[in-house]
């Protein structure tokens, strides 16, 4: 299953990076969001670490929606979805493959969003950067597991695409809040109260949607039109 | 027996597509699936492939490693990948280790070798369909389901298709073939499954079948 998942992820990355369109749109949207919020500050003013972290994660979530719409649309053009479903690998390999591809693309986008947050929102990375990096990966994991699961909803009919963002955002609230709390610690250098609880929430979220993806993806991603 | 359908029915909403379809597909046989437009042939093929769940009835699949080849109305091609990259991806997804020489040989069989490194998105409909056929026959499936595989193919390419069908049958694969020219393709079939008025009108030896009865 993992071999098939890696094949799917490698193919997706080759297609998205070669064509560029999906990733560039996601990057531009995230950067625009960070830039627009930077306009709310006076010259020389420094935004609070918590607000900056919230904007960073908002940019990441919008980027994630576009990334997964792009990844799942790759199969729709010539019906390749049926080919994936007919492969001997279990259908969950598609979910893992899409999640892997989405993870790499999201990290690429965040590699641009983070310097933009520092520059436009007047932040600096504190000595707690290693905690921030670990949390970034834990939260990204939750984002991509859920994104790959709900991204499958956008397959088949274009009218379903709006479902992704409508369902996704309320479900993401716990992990986004964890991201904002830990992100603010990374920018400010002050460990917030209940840090361990937020870490626990992020890990529980990853475990919950990891299991949900394995169980539910087969029902969502099917050959029925 | 590779595949057995037992009293299969399919509803889309309230609309009945097919009912009481029973048949078996044996290895090394070509079964021609015949019927007028809208008879439910493509739906039946999707049910055989496992892409669509029957509303009633039972589908029994006896194919090793679920190794099924399917040619539908769409080509399964990624337009931004080259022809050889497309074949390489499908091959790796099916857990087959194929080197460039094997992939080029598969493209050569459908006369696409000289376009191997070109973007598949630049291919004509006929070339895309030949690439689609190369994908299926490269994977050497035990059960091959073909939904009007001749679409977009010229006379020469039809010859390639017929050769590949004969080679797959010789290898022991079972084939189900929806053809829009039943009368001419009947000579290549061993069995016929004819659908009319949503149910099976004929299932038996091809030599005993009269195409005018349905089409």
UniProtKB/TrEMBL annotation, chain A:
One of its GO terms (biological process) is cytochrome complex assembly. It is found in: Membrane. The chain crosses the membrane at residues 20-39, 51-74, 94-121, 128-150, 162-183, 195-221. Coiled coil: none annotated. Signal peptide: none annotated. It comes from the Bacteria. Keywords: Membrane, Transmembrane, Transmembrane helix. One of its GO terms (cellular component) is membrane. It is a multi-pass membrane protein. One of its GO terms (molecular function) is heme transmembrane transporter activity. Belongs to the CcmB/CycW/HelB family. This is Cytochrome C biogenesis protein CcmB. It comes from Halodesulfovibrio spirochaetisodalis.
From TrEMBL, chain B:
Residues 3-215 form the ABC transporter domain. Keywords: ATP-binding, Nucleotide-binding, Transport. One of its GO terms (molecular function) is ATP hydrolysis activity. This is ABC transporter ATP-binding protein. It comes from Halodesulfovibrio spirochaetisodalis. The lineage of its organism: Bacteria, Pseudomonadati, Thermodesulfobacteriota, Desulfovibrionia, Desulfovibrionales.
């Amino acid at each position: 299953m993992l071999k098939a998942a890696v094949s799917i992820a490698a193919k997706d990355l080759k297609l998205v990076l070669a064509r560029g369109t999906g990733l560039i749109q996601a990057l531009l949207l995230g950067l625009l969001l960070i830039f627009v919020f930077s306009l709310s500050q006076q010259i020389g003013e420094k935004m609070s670490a918590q607000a900056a972290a919230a904007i960073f994660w908002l940019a990441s979530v919008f980027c994630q929606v576009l990334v997964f719409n792009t990844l799942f649309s790759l199969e729709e053009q010539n019906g390749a979805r049926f080919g994936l479903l007919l492969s001997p690998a279990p259908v969950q390999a598609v979910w893992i493959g899409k999640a892997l591809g989405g993870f790499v693309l999201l990290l690429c986008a965040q590699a641009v969003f983070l310097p933009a947050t520092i520059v436009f929102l007047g932040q600096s990375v504190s000595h707690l950067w290693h905690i921030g990096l670990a949390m970034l990966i834990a939260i990204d994991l939750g984002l991509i597991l859920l994104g790959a699961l709900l991204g499958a909803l956008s397959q088949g009919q274009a009218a379903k695409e709006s479902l992704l963002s409508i369902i996704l955002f309320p479900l993401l609230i716990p992990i986004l809040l964890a991201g904002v709390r830990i992100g603010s610690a990374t920018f400010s250098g002050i460990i917030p109260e209940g840090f361990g609880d937020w870490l626990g929430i992020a890990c529980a979220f990853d475990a919950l949607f990891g299991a949900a993806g394995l169980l539910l993806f087969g029902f969502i991603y099917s050959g029925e039109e | 027996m590779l595949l057995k359908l037992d009293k299969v029915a399919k509803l889309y909403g309230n609309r009945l597509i097919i009912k009481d379809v029973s048949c078996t597909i044996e290895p090394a046989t070509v079964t021609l699936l015949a019927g007028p437009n809208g008879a439910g042939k493509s739906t039946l093929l999707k049910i055989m492939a496992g892409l669509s769940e029957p509303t009633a009835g039972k589908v029994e699949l006896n194919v090793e490693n679920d190794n099924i080849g399917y040619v539908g109305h769409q080509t399964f091609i990624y337009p931004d990948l080259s022809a050889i990259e497309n074949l390489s991806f499908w091959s790796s997804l099916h857990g087959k280790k194929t080197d460039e020489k094997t992939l080029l040989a598969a493209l050569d069989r459908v006369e696409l070798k000289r376009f191997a490194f070109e973007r598949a998105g630049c291919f004509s409909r006929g070339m895309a369909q030949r690439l689609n056929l190369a994908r299926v026959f490269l994977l050497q499936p035990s059960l091959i389901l073909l939904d009007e595989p001749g679409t977009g193919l010229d006379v020469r390419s039809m010859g390639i298709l017929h050769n590949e069908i004969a080679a797959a049958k010789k290898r022991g694969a079972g084939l189900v073939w929806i053809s829009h020219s039943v009368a001419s393709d009947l000579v290549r079939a061993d069995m016929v499954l004819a659908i009319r008025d949503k149910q099976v009108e004929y299932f038996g030896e091809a030599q005993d079948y009269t195409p005018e009865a349905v089409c």
